[in-house]
């Protein structure tokens, strides 16, 4: 049962990310925004998020196996905030609200890493690239808000 849950966690994170990304795909509004020089080309986001969502699912499975309720709560919190950001940014086109969501996501990820460091070092390490990418996304979100408000 425990190993059978791994594909379910990956399906939840990767499938959820793909579904939300598909439903909230950047359109003409996003294309028309002024963007900073460090804005990656659109094709970069899919591969990066695919790798990150697989890692997020794997970490969720590890945390579930550990039975650590605090880590589990942080894992679910980051996933919820992660899934919330795209509809707020792309669908609602609320850049400042999206910035507050991604800042909360940053906090949840960094807190997860800090709490997991003792309980499950591998999970903490696997969240470091996720934290780096999300912090970059925060900078990008903030810059887009600043340039377009």
From TrEMBL:
Q: Which domain of life is it from?
A: Bacteria
Asked if Cell inner membrane is a keyword of the record, the answer is: no
For this protein, the record's InterPro entries field holds: TspO/MBR-related_sf, TspO_MBR
Question: For this UniProt entry, which segments traverse the membrane?
Answer: 44-64, 71-88, 94-113, 125-147
Q: State the membrane topology.
A: Multi-pass membrane protein
Q: Where is it chiefly localized?
A: membrane
The UniProt keywords, alphabetically, are:
Membrane, Transmembrane, Transmembrane helix
Q: Which GO terms describe its cellular component?
A: membrane
Q: Where in the cell is it found?
A: Membrane
A biological process (GO) of this protein is: tetrapyrrole metabolic process
What is stated as this protein's family in its record?
Answer: Belongs to the TspO/BZRP family.
> What is the protein's name according to its record?
Tryptophan-rich sensory protein
